[in-house]
Amino acid sequence: MPQRVLFVCLGNICRSPTAHGVFADMVAAAGLASSIVVDSAGTGAWHVGEPPDQRAVQAARAGGYDISLLRARQVQQVDFQAFDFVLAMDDANLEALRQMAPAEYDGHLGLFLDFAAPGSGQREVPDPYSGGMDGFAQVLALVEDACRGLLAHVAALGHTQREG
Ligand code: 4NP
């Protein structure tokens, strides 16, 4: 069974599609595309069906990632059946997800940056929507760091399952 990872922010046009695109590329580069499924969603519905914000597309492109083909969707209750990891970009997203999650959800519901390298000192990916390009570059840097830690964690689960 593949491990299934869902990244969640507010609009699904800035932070979570960036994480979606970066993590999918890292998973593919590690040769794990058939054992790790990646998706993203927003807690809000304002941007459903839209491509990522142009500034997020541009920041991702500068890092070598193409997120332009992703389309926004809203997180749904059934996502808690479909995903082993539901990772929120900030505390407000996490609170909204906790309100939605079935009591019996036994996956990992938490903050994405819990997987970042220790010492980064940041627990939330800041919402870049109302700021400038530097905010989007910061989002990409935080996302790349946490994606590396997440990949190590999820890949290790795969080893455990194969050996067990
Ligand atoms: P995201 O950024 O949650 O990282 O996709 C935002 C996108 C849209 C809005 C807020 C944040 N908005 O208010 O429409």
Give a description of the structure:
This protein has 164 residues and is of the alpha/beta class. It has helices at residues 15-29, 54-62, 79-82, 91-100, 133-163; strands at 3-9, 36-42, 85-88, 108-111. It has a 4-stranded parallel sheet with strand order 2-1-3-4. α1 (15-29) crosses α5 (133-163). The radius of gyration is 15 Å and the shape is globular. The model has no long low-confidence stretch (mean pLDDT 96). The structure holds 4-nitrophenyl phosphate. The site of 4-nitrophenyl phosphate (4NP) has 11 residues, from loops.
Short précis:
The protein has 164 residues and is of the alpha/beta class. It contains 5 helices and 4 strands.
What is the CA–CA distance across the termini? 13 Å
- What is the average of the pLDDT values? 96
Number of helices: 5
List of distinct ligands in this structure: 4-nitrophenyl phosphate
Q: Give the helix proportion (percent range).
A: 40-55%
| Count of beta strands | 4
Oligomer: single chain
- As a whole number of angstroms, the C-alpha radius of gyration is 15 Å
Give a short account of the largest sheet.
4 strands, parallel
- What is the global morphology? globular
Strand order of the largest sheet: 2-1-3-4
N-to-C series of helices and strands: EHEHHEHEH
Structural class: alpha/beta
Low-pLDDT runs of 5+ residues are none
Strand content: 5-15%
